Amino acid sequence: DQQVKQNSPSLSVQEGRISILNCDYTNSMFDYFLWYKKYPAEGPTFLISISSIKDKNEDGRFTVFLNKSAKHLSLHIVPSQPGDSAVYFCAANNYGQNFVFGPGTRLSVLP
Amino acid sequence: SQTIHQWPATLVQPVGSPLSLECTVEGTSNPNLYWYRQAAGRGLQLLFYSVGIGQISSEVPQNLSASRPQDRQFILSSKKLLLSDSGFYLCAWSVTGGNYEQYFGPGTRLTVT
Fold first, then answer.
1. Residue in A34, A41, A95 closest to B101 by CB
2. pLDDT digits over B7-37, tens only?
3. Among the partner residues A96, A100, A101, nearest to B100 by beta-carbon distance
4. CB contacts < 8 Å between A and B, how many?
5. Whole-angstrom distance, CA of residue B60 vs CA of residue B48
6. Exposure of A64 by Cβ count < 10 A (0-12 exposed, 13-18 middle, 19+ buried)?
7. Side-chain half-sphere of A36: how many Cα atoms within 13 Å?
8. More exposed terminus of chain A, fewer Cβ within 10 Å: N or C?
């Protein structure tokens, strides 16, 4: 049973436009959500996170939205840049326990 | 600042051979430590995590084992590798009781032939 899902394995966006990456989860006990960015042959790097008590967190070009009732979160990147091309992982945990990662979405930003 | 090291970066091993991957963290004390595997085209699978020296929790049954002989050292081992053990192995750490963010090492690419 996949507790964290990223239903789009890949996404292509034009440079300068908005990239929207989606993530759904099934475990209502999850209370903290994170996005990681991963380049080939490197470890993932932390990007942005959100606690379940919030519905939005913003850091520069990156914004994460959380809809608890729908068990859905999304990462918005505006404006998208070619250097944003990478695999993005959504992750969730409950009080620091039970870390679960989604399968990832490969984002390609086209110049 | 904190740094996490993993070695080797790449490894090619025959089926049935032993394995030892090492991970060390600098700049922090009593971290939570994790081993993940990313198989080709797949997400990150948590293999083991540790909240302290000698304390190891296993998430999936397999022919791998983990040990934490020192506070900032985490070792992934196998007595006999299988073809299915091929993948990208990642070590990560997080602050105990902190903000739940995990920080990853550079990874080890293991190919079992």
1. A34
2. 999 999 999 999 999 999 999 889 999 999 9
3. A96
4. 53
5. 8
6. buried
7. 25
8. N
List the structure tokens of B28: 């922090």
User: Token pair of A11, please?
Assistant: 């996404």
DSSP B34-102: EEEEE-TT--EEEEEEEEETTEEEESS-SSEEEEEEETTEEEEEESS--GGG-EEEEEEEE-TTS----
Secondary structure (DSSP) of A88-110: EEEEEEETTEEEEE---EEEEEE
Record the tokens describing residue A80, joined without a space: 């998208």
Q: How far is C-alpha A8 from the geometric centre of its chain's CA atoms?
A: 12
- Asked if B105 contacts B24 with a C-beta cutoff of 8 angstroms, the reply is no
> Which amino acid does the sequence have at B95?
V
In this predicted model, what pLDDT tens digit does every residue of A4-25 receive, in sequence order?
Answer: 999 999 999 999 999 999 999 9
CB < 8 Å to A103, chain B: 42-43
Angle at B10 between CA B7 and CA B12, to 5 degrees: 120
Token pair 């999304």 in the structure block, residue: A74
- The string of pLDDT tens digits covering residues A59-110 is 999 999 999 999 999 999 999 999 999 999 999 988 766 788 999 999 999 9
B31 and chain A in contact, CB less than 8 A: no
pLDDT the model gives residue A17: 97
